[in-house]
Design a protein that fits this description.
The structure is a single chain. By secondary structure, the chain is α/β, with parallel strands linked by helices. It has 21 helices and 25 strands. Among the domains are: about 410-620, Rossmann fold (3-Layer(aba) Sandwich); about 655-770, Immunoglobulins (Immunoglobulin-like, Sandwich). Strand 11, helix 16 (about 460-470) and strand 12 (about 475) form a beta-alpha-beta unit.
Length: about 775
């Protein structure tokens, strides 16, 4: 009845519109979007529709009319009726991009029958990729996740959106909201963390930053794409594209949650499916995932987009489709709206016209997919303003300066102090006269994957030299080369003799210094997305090569020594954890890494990051995520303890925090009613600092086994030295829910334990009981 009423209303609107406005409804910005979609769909041919769910990668300069005309003629039917997306896989400056994009867009808008504009797509995982005009490079998601700061994350992605939209991009292939449940995976640095609640909160913040908070997407924002749906972060063997052996319960209780919140809270406009399969069904052909859950249960109204070449991989990699036509049929019938092929010959949706004529795909299925793409184009206002507008250069520079400061703040907040015996850190700029910076990651800027690596950045050596200018001397020795996957390193530089020489040179230099900062870890060649002959996954998590030998040689000098890790994945740093006096986990810190490290190492900034992943002692412990089920890891291994090297939520400070007076508003709560929790947190040290207060719940008895603890809230709080603040949380019904035996959400009566504290292993506890309504 509701659908009939809506249809009747649209028909009335259309009749009234036709009487007063001669131009087509879909070109009238005052008309309702759903009416514009209906009107445009009715005017489109089958070929028109198929082109709207395709992407074009122009590889040449088509800003000149002759070149554009020849290119379109050469491509034949591929683009003559328009296209859904444009993506230039070459770097350009603002002027070149504007000229090329606007020329192609002008052809689509002014020379095709219906004048449908194209969306411009680009990567933006932690900064705009593909711009020669030096966009801001922020810390990677692993670092942003360590900030536990939703306000900061929203600001970072708002800055990313502003730089991308200013360039002319209208669709960002970000954020990644997968759960990192296997650190062997080469795409670890793209992920915010391992916990569903934590990733959901930061993921929602990222989407709000990209899309803005209004229903329509304005000129400072763009379409966000939540990816990769789903199970992507827990592949078999920790290898890219591998199956994810996950039950429906594990999916619903963990991997689904960030995507559900992205849809319901952030109103994300695009979702990208993941390469993996679940229970024998490739995700790109999984109707239960893409249609039943995403649309049917959560109410998603945007479009589902494929990962690159993923539909085609169902043929040659997963061997689940006989040919491309079958792969395309399976994908679109499952709810895949838009295919991103690597090239035209790998485009499986090109068989849709024949499949529709043969009755293997319904015309209404194609219409639904096209409508979703058009909806985003109308919401973006592309029909009214399809072209890139040149920005004021002064305003651009002012924005970049602000974004640089934001990148610095993000880098500072993302660093995690893992160890600090005897107050080794912070270093004193008055007591140190000569500082040695030693290690393979000190004199290069490491941005991580999906980065604009031509943007200038401050490396760690440079940052410390700038900081120490006029106060102390900074000297450098490489100490060791990380040469895995690096063809640029000569064979003679990989010999034992060459390695011993570099270590000896570092030791000799360190002997002349008052303090040493060891900068170690990994690099973008050792933690990256895997494909053929492009390895990035690992079967161990140790420091690569002889970095431990370098560390041992320096630590044995008994100098004031701290270790800084620059890396993309959690590493099992057992030797360092035992022997080093101070350790900072830095991840990849973006373009301001050198300045941020200097500020933290010398105490200008008090470190406040907390681990958003669990760090294992050994790869053999995996999986080792904190929210395990009972009886897992209850006994030690023969060869060592079951506990992780560093637990989820852990992170030290240069000051100390004390928790007290954990209070519940009631010891009993009726199902459906909220429970208020408060705790007093005091800064008992001698420095101001930020603490991340974490709230966990444990269901003590349940009809379905539950994790030993689950993060349900957190708060970042600033405390001056000696200051006490009372932090309050509300435990609402949704935080007590879980999936019952029938896979429906329930709140079960019984006793719960509240855990509030510094990490998943250091907390105060109190119990309460949930009772049924009498």
């Amino acid at each position: 009845m509701k659908n009939f009423a809506l249809l009747l209303a649209l028909m009335v609107c259309a009749m009234l519109h036709a009487q007063v406005n001669p131009k087509p409804i879909y070109k009238d910005p005052a008309a309702p979007i759903e009416l514009r979609i209906k009107d445009l769909l009715a005017r489109m041919t089958l070929e028109d529709k198929c082109r709207q769910i395709d992407i074009w990668h122009p590889k040449m300069d088509l800003s000149q009319p002759a070149e554009l005309k020849n290119a379109i003629a050469a491509l034949g039917d591929t683009v003559k009726n328009g296209i859904g997306f444009l993506q230039f896989n070459v770097r350009m400056n603002d002027a070149a991009y504007m000229a090329r994009f606007n020329a192609i867009q002008k052809y689509f808008v002014e020379q095709t029958r219906l004048g449908i504009p194209a969306i411009s797509n680009a990567e933006g995982c932690h900064g705009f990729v593909g711009n020669e005009d030096q966009p801001t490079v922020f810390p990677v998601s692993a670092s942003l996740g360590s900030t536990w700061d939703t306000t900061l994350v929203e600001a970072v992605f708002s800055a990313v959106a502003k730089e991308m939209r200013g360039f002319g991009v209208t669709h960002a292939a970000t954020p990644v909201i997968d759960l990192l449940r296997d650190p062997r995976f080469g795409r670890a640095d793209e992920m915010l963390g391992e916990d569903p609640y934590h990733v959901a909160q930061l993921g929602v913040a990222a989407i709000l930053g990209l899309q803005g908070r209004s229903p329509q997407i304005d000129g400072q924002h763009l379409i966000a794409c939540a990816k990769h749906f789903t199970g992507h972060g827990q592949p078999e063997g920790g290898t890219n594209l591998a199956p994810s052996n996950l039950s429906e319960r594990v999916l619903r209780e963990n991997h689904f949650f960030p995507f559900e919140m992205a849809v319901k809270k952030a109103k994300v406009r695009t979702v990208m499916a993941s390469y993996n399969e679940i229970d024998g069904v490739p995700n790109h052909a999984n109707k239960w995932l893409l249609n039943d859950v995403l649309r049917g249960e959560w109410g998603f109204t945007g479009y589902v987009i494929s990962d690159y070449d993923a539909v085609n991989r169902m043929v040659y990699r997963q061997h689940s489709s006989l040919n491309q036509a079958e792969a395309g049929k399976r994908a679109i019938n499952a709810g895949m709206d838009f295919e991103c092929p690597s090239n035209w010959k790998n485009y499986c949706f090109r068989f849709l016209p024949a499949l529709i004529k043969a009755g293997e795909v319904k015309a209404s299925t194609l219409d639904s997919a096209v409508a979703r793409v058009l909806r985003n184009k109308f919401m973006m206002g592309l029909f009214e303003q399809p072209y890139i507008q040149a920005l004021d250069e002064k305003a651009k520079m002012e924005a970049k300066l602000k974004h640089r400061q934001l990148a610095l703040q993000a880098a500072e907040k993302g660093m995690i102090l893992l160890k600090n015996d005897n107050n080794t850190l912070p270093f004193s700029e008055t007591k140190i006269k000569r500082l040695a910076i030693i290690g393979p990651n000190a004199d290069e800027v490491h941005y991580g994957t999906y980065s604009n690596d031509i943007s200038p950045g401050v490396n760690i050596l440079e940052g410390l030299r700038n900081y120490g200018k006029g106060k102390f001397e900074v000297v450098f020795a490489e100490g060791y080369k990380i040469y895995e996957n690096d063809p640029s390193i000569k064979a003679e530089d990989k010999t034992i003799e060459a390695e011993n020489r570099r270590i000896a040179e570092a030791v000799a230099l360190a002997k002349t210094c008052d303090a040493v900062l060891l900068v170690m870890g990994g690099n973008e060649l050792t933690c990256r997305e895997e494909w053929k002959n492009h390895t990035g996954d690992r079967f161990d998590l140790d420091l690569l090569g002889r970095q431990n030998d370098l560390a041992k040689a320096i630590i044995e000098l008994n100098k004031q020594t701290a270790v800084l890790l620059i890396n993309g994945r959690p590493l099992s740093i057992n030797y360092l954890a035992e022997q080093a006096s101070a350790i900072i986990e830095g991840w990849y810190l973006g373009q301001e890494q050198g300045n941020a490290v200097a500020n933290v190492v010398f105490g200008k900034v008090n470190p406040s990051g907390k681990l958003a992943v669990t760090i294992p002692r050994h790869v053999g412990q995996l999986p080792v995520y904190y929210n395990r089920k009972p009886y897992v890891h209850e006994s030690d291994y023969i060869s060592g303890p079951y506990s992780p090297l560093y637990p989820f939520g852990f992170g030290l400070s240069y000051t100390q925090f004390n928790y007290s007076n954990l209070t519940l508003s009631s010891k009993k709560v009726i199902v459906g009613e909220p429970l208020n929790v408060s705790v007093a947190v005091t800064n008992t040290g001698e420095r101001d600092g930020d603490e991340i207060v974490q709230l966990y719940l444990r269901d003590l008895v349940s009809s379905v086994t539950r994790p030993v603890q689950e993060l349900k809230d957190f708060a970042r709080v600033q405390l001056k030295k000696g200051e006490t603040k009372t932090i309050s949380f509300s435990i609402t019904a949704d935080k007590l829910q879980y999936y019952g035996l029938d896979m429906k959400r329930i709140v079960e009566a019984g006793e719960f334990e509240v855990q509030v504290g510094k990490s998943s292993t250091d907390y105060l506890t109190a119990n309460f009981e949930v009772i049924k309504q009498q």
